[in-house]
Amino acid sequence: MDDWDDFRLILALMRAGTLRGAAAGLGLTHTTVSRRLAALQDARGQLFEKTPDGYIPNTLGRALVSIAEQMESLSLTGARHQRALDDALSGTITMSLPEAIAQYLLLEDLLEFAALYPAIDLRVETSYRFVDLDRSEADIVVRGAQEPPDHLVGRRLFPNCVTYYGNREYLAATPREELRWIAPSPETRSAGWVERSPFPDAPVALVIDDITARHRALVKGLGLSRGACFMADPEPGLVRLDARTPDPQQDIWVLTHPDLRNTPRIRLAMDFIAQAMLRKKPLVLGELDPA
Q1: How far is CA 263 from CA 45, 47, 115, 274, in A?
Q2: pLDDT in tens for each of the 291 residues of the chain?
């Protein structure tokens, strides 16, 4: 096999397990992937076994998968080094960050960066998934994490802090026994989320995993909730439910791949975002102005 596309097909099918999934990953049609796999196996022998759980590589298939992974790693490394050699403050930067941070903390700063450096094509992708910098899914990631991958480089900033909130009008109009919580699903909810709250006897009436949707429900007075201080404290219609210090969650990091750490535009963007975040540290930590 001397065609990289054949190896990409093998990798995609191994990772997805289905022709449809492999086609989506490769940007091809199901029919095209099916035809290419049939031609490949006619030429090279059986590589995958079709099982109720999907396509599983056999011994030969696993050997070729291993080779394909090495080729992919070399290709990604070469692409990163090529980007790193560009010493101009121009070119493309792909930055991945959670939607809540993009929308409620950094939106104006991202626009300012784009205005200050028009030769840099800043592409912002919002995701709560920790994207794979080794696979060049992004150049910079801003993300909460307890322990990010050891080989990534960047800065640990400070923890994202959360506490309990309610809408003023909802609290005024709702008897205590009728108060309800808006919460994440039990699988993603931290232990004791409701039990440690100021209203531990109030039931969960609405489960919303999406952070921004849960915040909007809180603002609209659909129930009580726990939220990020940087999202909830600026809302004039919300009040904290107790005086306890907000709970620190994961630390916020600004990270890149070590191959890109000395690329001028990457360093510039990372420093810019880190400084923007540091200016907002009191808001993120929930340090209310005594006045």
Answers
A1: 45, 41, 20, 16
A2: 456 777 778 888 778 878 888 888 778 787 888 888 788 877 778 888 888 878 888 888 777 777 777 776 766 666 555 555 555 678 899 999 999 999 999 999 999 999 999 999 999 999 888 888 888 889 999 999 888 888 999 999 999 999 999 999 999 999 999 999 999 998 888 888 899 999 999 999 999 999 999 999 999 999 999 999 999 999 999 999 988 999 999 999 999 999 888 889 999 999 999 999 999 999 999 997 644
Question: Among 62, 80, 53, 77, which Cα is nearest to 262's?
Answer: 80
Q: Virtual CA dihedral for 209, 214, 215, 219, nearest 10 degrees? A: -170
Angle between helices 59-84 and 4-16 (to 10 degrees): 110
Neighbours of 4 (CB within 10 A): 12
Give the DSSP letter string of 70-93.
Answer: HHHHHHHHHHHHHHHT--SS-EEE
Angle at 285 between CA 282 and CA 291, to 5 degrees: 50
Please report the beta strands in 65-152, taking only residues with DSSP state E, as ranges in sequence order: 91-97, 120-126, 140-145
Residue 283 to residue 269: CA distance in whole angstroms? 22
